[in-house]
Amino acid sequence: MSTATLDAERRFKTTFFGKAMAAVGKAVAYAVMGFFALMAVYPVLWLGINSFKSNAEYQLNKMGLPQEWFPINYKGAWELGDFSILLPNSIFYTVVGTAGVVLLAALSGFAFAKLGGKAKGAMYGSFVVGIMLSLSSLMIPLFLQISQFDLSIGTLLHALGLVGDPMSFHLFYNTRFGVILVYIGSGLPLAIYMTTEYIKGIPTALVEAARIDGASYWRIFTSVILPICVPIITTVAIITLPGIWNEFALINIIVGKLELQSLPLGILRFSGSRAADYGKQFAALVIGLMPMLLFYVAFHKQITKGVSGGAVKG
Amino acid sequence: MASALSSAKKEISRAYWAFSLPAFVLYLFVFAFPIILSAVISLSNYKGGQMFGGEPWKLTGFKQYGILFADPAFWQALKNNIYIVLVSVLGQLPLGFVFAYLIYRKVVKFGDFWEGILYMPAIISVIVLGIMWKFIFASNGLLADIFTAGNMRHLVAAIDAALKSGPDLSDDGIRHILKAMDPSVVGLLGSDPVAGFKEQLLPGGSVHISDVGAFVAALKNYAPKWTPDFMTKQDAAMIPIMFVTLWCWTGMYIILFRANMEKIDHEVIEAARIDGANEMQIARRIVLPALSGIIINAAILCIAGSMNQFSLIWAMTGGGPMNVTEVLSIYMYRTATIGVNYPLSNAIAMVIVVFSFVLIGLTKVAEKGLGGTEE
Fold it and tell me: What is the pLDDT along chain A (314 residues), one digit of tens a residue?
């Protein structure tokens, strides 16, 4: 068969048969996409709608719009769910935790990328390994560790006559300090990996030139490295932030008392104690998901970029 | 000269340690020490007292691991972890690939919009989502209502069909209606359901239906009620969890695959198109091979994610009923908090950690084998 007939045959296929197939394919593609998009959105929308129903109406009418709107559910959920405690706590943990992760990642990223030492390979390697370690598996060991640390420090301070009861001394357990340390530590591996790989791309000549001009390493970090790192710092911050905001497994074992609880902890507690109070229950869930939803709408582009950048390594 | 060089070296080393030590200490605090501690406790008879200078405890060897591997709850939990891996690898990855491809090849327009919507669940707290889905899957939840409403519509349609030819119900029409009714209600109508229907359910005992609306309203409640008992039935309890896992994290793989598809040399695909290749062929012959390394990485990510799974199941079922939805991390948590058996609990932690290390090894092997170019 000559190429000309082959080409003609192909052209025929692409013009008639092909076009029809492509149109059908497109329709199917849109239908599937639309179905899955609806599946993603509808449950959340349903939750939002039902948060405005009275308890009695929810039981009779689960699918439709409320006949009578009950925005008062939100007031009830806010008060009963102690959201005036949970929300500031979550904001505190997330802001301080994210800032800590980003700062420490930039510092050690600079060290790993530009300032080798003998221990560099092993240290950087251990962070990379940490990306894949299951943090959930560490919650019990971590709990035992911090209670032992607290107990040991308490005993020591007791021997020095600084505290009365060594058992009641807590530096890590049930303290904001403990939560923040654990959150920064758990966010570091991925953050350090991403930051280090980025700083490796910065020409070493820039660092050397600054050295010759007599700048200290701290000076080089603040005035050469940091300004160049703004994009990667932003990306790391944007993928670290939701992780801390939504974290549950670790804070669940570090924090016992209400005054220190974050949103996920408080919402689960609220859900357990008022399982049949549907309207308020749903309102509490909506309050719980709203901040991240707004964050997602605002930073959707950067989050997408961060997810693909951070997940490649796994 | 020599001293200047060595002082420069000293300075660089000092800077290195000053910059990297804070992060490294925290890393030791959160990852390394707990793992070492966990390994030691798993080999001991430690009961939770003061570790240094307190209540005596000693190493007892690998006893706990023997107990662990003999415990059916361990295998149950491991099986559930594997279920989650399966739904991730066989569900999330193929779906993620298909959606990423549709967006990448612009088969559907507004790709960013679809991608944005499908990723949305992954950004919300799994505690919130878990509780939400619990209400949807509950025996009196949304899903039950949707199915029961469908059954009702079916019954109403059967009544309409039976009354199409006129206001009088025929025996055949009644049989038609009976078929759409709840079998347990039909059972109450006696050995001859048609006669029973006429006797008990017709207004005034007449087959002449003058008010169709009232008749429908009276019969509507006899539609079969669908009460899903996912959360109470043992073998079905994992289904909602697997569904929500799929629902929640497929979007992540769409983003990951799409970002890597965008890196494929566009001219290769253009050339294939000019040669007459259709979308199916481009997907299979060009895009899939180009992404093979990423797909293997993603599969390992799925397994790691399943090992890390805790909060979603905790919010949805708490591991119940009768521990049938436990994964390893929940089993570990239960052993430590309810059983207060720290050695056993830490043996479970060690199993998960060892598993994680095997996965990390696999990633390295996969990277080498496929000539991966990250790093």
Answer: 455 666 666 665 566 776 777 788 889 999 999 999 999 999 999 999 999 999 888 888 888 899 889 999 999 999 999 999 999 999 999 999 999 999 999 999 999 999 977 788 899 999 988 988 888 889 999 999 999 899 889 888 988 888 888 788 899 999 999 999 999 999 999 999 999 999 999 999 999 999 999 899 999 999 999 999 999 999 999 989 999 999 999 999 999 899 999 999 999 998 888 777 899 999 999 999 999 999 999 999 889 888 887 654 33
Judging contacts by C-beta atoms under 8 Å, the chain B residues touching residue A293 are 120, 123-124
How far B236 CA lies from chain A's nearest CA (Å)? 21
pTM for this prediction: 0.89
Q: Does the CB of A275 have a partner CB in chain B at under 8 Å?
A: no
What is the helix (H) or strand (E) element at residue A29, kind and residue range? helix A17-50
Listed residue (A309, A182, A173, A193) closest to A250, CA to CA: A182
Question: Rounded to the nearest 5°, which phi and psi values hold at B126?
Answer: -70, -20
Is B32 touching A (CB cutoff 8 A)? yes
Nearest CA in chain A to B121: A40
C-alpha neighbours within 13 Å on the C-beta side of residue A39: 15
ipTM: 0.90
CB B155 within 8 A of CB B136: no
Q: Taking CB atoms and an 8 Å cutoff, what residues of chain B touch A136?
A: 307-310, 329, 352
How far B286 CA lies from chain A's nearest CA (Å)?
19
| Residue among B13, B27, B276 whose CB faces A127 most closely | B27
Residues of B within 8 A of A135 (CB-CB) are 308
Say how far apart CA B116 and CA A217 lie, in whole Å: 41
Phi, psi of B97 (to 5 degrees): -65, -45
